[in-house]
Amino acid sequence: MEKHPQPQRGTNGDVIWHRVGAFFIDSILMGLIWVPVIIVGAALGDLGFLVLASAGLVATLVYGFLLEGLYGYTPGKYLLGLVVIKSDGSNCTIGASILRNLLWIVDALPTFNLVAMVSILLTDDNQRVGDLVGDTVVVKQQ
Description:
Elements: E1 7-8, H1 16-71, H2 75-79, E2 82-86, H3 94-102, H4 104-107, H5 114-122, H6 129-134, E3 136-141
Antiparallel strand pairs: 1-3, 2-3
């Protein structure tokens, strides 16, 4: 995996549909993590489910928080040629990634990512609430 690919600054307005696609790819990949956890965990009973759910939660946190913080992208973003950077053009940090991903709670409200889409369309740098709080933008890779 290429660590922090070179961003094409100023392309954040050109990546809205790429972001949607990356979200769907990442959601499918996250589902592939959680489906076995639920199926196997249910077969193992309460304690087994708790252990596997904890492992699934760790995998989810690593997937979302650490990949963007360490590399600047998730697999979905990478496949669609996107990278997350700080608004000043520097590399995304783990702290910024944690902030932007925790705010999915707000971005997903009141329905399927409605706040995120409205925010992306109304902000000058096409940022969702998580991007605004984390001071990040999503741009094309060079």
